[in-house]
Amino acid sequence: MTSILVRRTGAFGDVIDTTPVVRRLRHENPDAEIDVDTQYPRVSLNSPHRVGLKRDIAYDRVIDLNMAFERNLRRVGIVESYMEVAFGDREGSTQVEMSYGPPPEFGLDWSLAITMHPARSWPQRTLPVNFWIDLANILAKRGWIVLCIGTKQDWGFNGHRVLDLRDRFDMQTQASVIGASRAFVCSESGPMMLAQVTDVPVVALHTMALPWITARERHGVVGWRFRGIPSPIECVGCSHRLPEASTFFSCERGDNICVTLFDPEKIADQVESAARETAAA
To answer: For 38-59, how does the pLDDT look when each residue is reduced to its tens digit (9 = 90+)?
Structure first.
């Protein structure tokens, strides 16, 4: 029996982006043993494609997806870059997937829930904590219940109708919380990919990347219920102008001003509009 190892160590969102490769591998190799080598094995938990974890064996084929996107200088889509390594083409669906269950029992009216991920990450994609607090408070005043997810490294805060749920849930439960909400709002982060394994409308605030690189296929449509909002500055999307493959880089201007230019009132309008899509569905 053929054995195949798919390797993408991290980060979280990049590992979720390997799931279209695994799906296509299973379709083309129905009897193969397919394992993954990653820091985020829960992405493959209960996968319908019969995926295992790396073993101490000599694999017939190793598909190393580390640096695949970066070697394309971030100018080719992530999933397309992975497909190129795995299959020699850029064909196939970009729909990401991960198994998850129902949301936890909070006694919460999910019809009023909006989930956000106030990420703290690279300086050029970490929006100020005051932006997130203002956005959460605006949404709360408009009658929504705001759920903040992530880890302790992310911004966290409580308030009237605002709940800090960081570090409370595993990956599957975070997906269930996101999926049960009316809308999800985030910056460029792993949960932006996690949200796209669900049907929730996504409002994603972009600084380093442009929306065409982060929107995935859902229900046969790339960018279905995905609102990618670039920072209103000419240099937005700086990651697509790198001269060489890199896993980290600094602001071209040196001031990371792009993260400060989002208007919380306008973003709240976008989130509410996205939430109405769910209510109308």
So the answer is: 999 999 999 999 999 999 999 9
Whether the predicted pLDDT of 279 surpasses 80: no
The tens digit of pLDDT for each residue in 54-93 reads 999 999 999 999 999 999 999 999 999 999 999 999 999 9
Residue linked to tokens 């409370």 = 168
Assess whether the previous peptide bond of 11 is cis (omega < 30° from 0). yes
What single letter denotes the amino acid at residue 42? R
Which of 173, 161, 182, 178 lies closest to 111 in space, CA to CA? 182
Q: Which 3-state string (H, E, C) describes the chain? A: CCEEEEECCCCHHHHHCCHHHHHHHHHHCCCCEEEEECCCHHHHCCCCCCEEECCCCCCCEEEECCCHHHHCCCCCCHHHHHHHHHHCCCCCCCCCCCCCCCCCCCCCCHHHEEEEECCCCCHHHCCCHHHHHHHHHHHHHCCCEEEECCCCCCCCCCECCEEECCCCCCHHHHHHHHHHCCEEEEECCHHHHHHCCCCCCEEEEECCCCHHHHCCEECCEECCCEEEEECCCCCCCHHHHCCCCCCCCCCCCCCCHHHHCCCHHHHHHHHHHHHHHHHHC
Query: Cβ(170)–Cβ(186) under 8 Å?
Result: no
The mean of the pLDDT values for the chain is 96
Taking the C-alpha atoms of residue 158 and residue 86, their distance in angstroms, rounded to an integer, is 44
Q: Which two tokens stand for residue 157?
A: 């805060």
CB 6 within 8 A of CB 35: yes
In contact, 182 and 112? CB cutoff 8 Å = yes
Report the phi/psi class of residue 215: left, alpha or beta, with left for phi > 0 and alpha for psi in -120 to 50.
beta
